[in-house]
Amino acid sequence: MAAPNQVQIIIPKDNAHQNQRNINIPESEDDQIDYSERAQWLRAAVLGANDGLVSIASLMMGVGAVKDDAKAMILIGFAGLFAGACSMAIGEFVSVYSQLDIEIAQMKRENRAAENNESLPNPIQAAMASALAFALGAIVPLLAAAFINDYKVRLGVVVAATALALVAFGLVGAVLGRTKVVRSCVRVVIGGLMAMGITFGLTKLLGSNGLEM
């Protein structure tokens, strides 16, 4: 019982629970980031880096399967770097530009405006990200083989450096996209090693049948 001159206020339980439910818990800065906005350039960068790393390493392994000349391996690797970077940039630009045209046409048909939080693809951004990432990936096996004269050691170093770089690229892609790290790394490493092994084996087979460089 309340004492004299005191007012006893009773808050109904239902209202108390309602007030608790209405309390907004501040979101962390990480929760407010829309990682899907990174998908466009991240996809181009991850694809370019892995493609540059795996294709140039596989190309060098293929050359190494039939020729133990380090100079030939390096020159062919650099030729593949330049050709691949240009090809990736042009391919990304054309494909993303086509996607942009399709999305703009669809927006016009639906009478939507680009200002309504529409995230349109950027062909130039995708082309630059892909080309630079391809060159970054391609330089890894080239540097790994550039200073080693022994044939077998050179091939082993290329494989090891490529595998480590694949792990690094998979890790970076997973962190930036907030995806599972182990799955991303295992996927790219297995794929890269398979590509190098298949290229080496098939080129070795062709070389043993008289198609030597």
UniProtKB/TrEMBL annotation:
Membrane topology: Multi-pass membrane protein
InterPro entries: Ccc1_fam
Signal peptide residues on this chain, from the entry's feature table: none
GO biological process terms, semicolon-separated: intracellular manganese ion homeostasis
GO cellular component terms given for this protein: vacuolar membrane
Alphabetized UniProt keyword annotations: Ion transport, Iron, Iron transport, Membrane, Transmembrane, Transmembrane helix, Transport, Vacuole
Localization annotation: Vacuole membrane
Known catalytic reactions: Fe(2+)(in) = Fe(2+)(out)
Physiological role: Vacuolar Fe(2+) uptake transporter.
Protein family membership: Belongs to the CCC1 family.
Record's protein name: Vacuolar iron transporter
Organism: Buddleja alternifolia
